[in-house]
User: What shape does this take?
Amino acid sequence: MHMNISNASELLSEASGAGGHFLRLNKYSTDSEELLLRFFTMAVRHGAFLEKGMANPTAGDMAYFESTSVNGFALDREFIRAAAKKCCSASDSALSAFSDSIFDSLTALKNEGKNDSILKNTLIKFLCWLRRDLSRALAPSKEKYPPKILCKGGLTRHEMMALYAAARAGCDILIAEYDGGAYYDKLPQNEKKAELIEAEGGDFPKGYTLADIRKKSEERRRLAAAANVPAVSPSAARAPAQKNGGFCVNAWISGNIYADILTEQGARGNEPDTYYTCYARINGAENKMTYLSELYSFYMKLRETREPLVIDKEMPIPTNEEIASIPRGNYRTPADMTAALSLNIVHSDPKLQGIIRRAFISVMDMYFADGNEMRKGISKAVFLLCWLKKYQKELFGGSRKGFPCLIIFGGCHNAAEAMFVKMIARCPADVLILRPDMSRSCELIDELLYERNFTESLPAEKFPREDGDVSLGTVAYYAERELDSMMYTDTGIYRSHQYSKANAVALRTMYEEIPALWATELKYRPNFSVSGDVVNIPVIMAKISGVKDKDLPRYWNELHGMASAFPDSTLVIKGEPLTSEEGSCEYAVSLMKKGRLSVSAVKAHKNYRYGFLKEETQDYILEKLSAFLEMNLIKEQNTGGLLYRIIHICLNMSSEILRLIQKFDFTAVNPKIIYIATGENVISRADSILLAFLSKLGFDVIFYVPTGYQSAEKYYNAGVLSCIETGEYMFDLQIPDLSRKTADPKKSFFRRIFGKDK
Assistant: This one.
């Protein structure tokens, strides 16, 4: 029987036989995409989703298998079976089938003349893929259908061998050949084991990948979840009952979330040994005028009976010390890893300890069901355990006051935070997510979650814990904020100082373009863009050597035009020093923590001079300084203590420069420095360092060197300064008054009086 779309779809039923189908699909249509979507859904539940194929083993993988599984390598069925057994908890029959297939493949390679060293390394590759990519598919499962593996096309010969081995072990394999089947045509004839699904349609769209399938599946889940969200009304429908393992989540609530959370446990339900919990998210504000005061009133009432844990900022990334406190080992499967790491959860109450461990395992199972790799899963699991250690006392401590309650204000900023919230929601605790600002996304998607949606959006950064945190706006105030949002969001129109973060990117230009770009506001320059809350600003960092056509009047008038384009934002330096290397920089040693500049250490130091600037301006300077050091733009930066001298120079800028930074609007006119060097004095290293740093802050910096002598580039690594040769070198020039135009002596007296050059 030839395999077509209809036959392939039959494989996706719960009772689809014993598995072992090895298929490939190379046509695009709505039917084939639906097949991929359904296959993806089943693969992430029980199987493997190989969006990027299977990566080659790392050096660490090679060393691990060399010292364990393949030590004393022999091309022998039992040897391979024993090695595979260390990598996967599959049934004996599945493991035998997989191992026999690998043995056959290695034997074929040996017959082609491959030596034992190559065969051993190839076996390591198969074992690494088995442990890392295929173990979940071969592991026992409660699902009734055979495991599914969805993989991208364009595979290597070895990858095809591994997938065929998985098919022999009982997995249904589907290869999406959206890049064509040229790779398959190159396989030896006896290795072309995959059956092509006969399907109508054409080539896959250009740029199509399995990431599109994953995104469409996620979008379907979001739409399905949204379809179950109750409409906003005073009598919101109750959430579906969730009664499992002694928990009743949301089934008892009225829909008035504040009142529900204030309800005592005893009044929520009367079934014995049952925790009645509320797990809800409120999107938007019912009334912007009263939102914060009502929230503050709710908070004060809640504190009368219990002390909630309120998180209104992004949860801090665990420190290296916190991460190191979580012992880890080598795991064969995600289930092994999750079970082992759950033992890090310790509580004096054995029953509560068991509940929290089960919640952790449940959330990790959901993570792996979405097709995520075990390596990334370990990182997520460690984050969860670090945060649990951090907040466990406040949530589940023996001296806690009343039933635990976690309040997340502003929504979950990332997937890791969402996983933490899911975990706490599966423990005996109330969880409330508040998202008054509808422009901010919340990463949490959970089938247990109950939602209330309001149409008004209220920007609010801080949860009102104290009376002083509550401020009320008038109707006119909120109307102005809405108008402000409409005018300055994705319109190309920008409010003054709308952004506090920026990335400076040096433009590579021709000499003739520089005067025009210099006089152009940032938002009108090529390559200007805004990504989220960060502005990408194109700046000029160039050295102009020589005088074009030896035309000095035009040369000086060009400088006059640039100096006078934005005089309040421009510094003209005629060889005088901007800064110096004087002064001790020993204090800078204490500002480096683990190879990086510590912003908090800088601000706390007694020598810190920028404390009078706006907080966001200080943060901007220090974050850019940290990045500047990591870029390693200065020659020999990491020798002779130069690193600390750079820190000293950049933390001791003049008041004149600091004022330019303070008023810098990232979408308008950027600060500018013109450095003119007409003599033989070479710019100092200190000034060169400072000008390179100012360029990374967003300054336009241009060196005019008519002599062509070496300048700041002698201190820079390649690529920092764009050097442009524009004409003949000229020497011993006197710099005129650049506030005025320079007259051309070659022009006639009458033309200078009556013509355009007057």
Summary: The two ends are 92 Å apart (CA to CA). The CA atoms of residues 292 and 470 lie 6 Å apart. The first helix runs from residue 5 to 10. The mean pLDDT is 85.
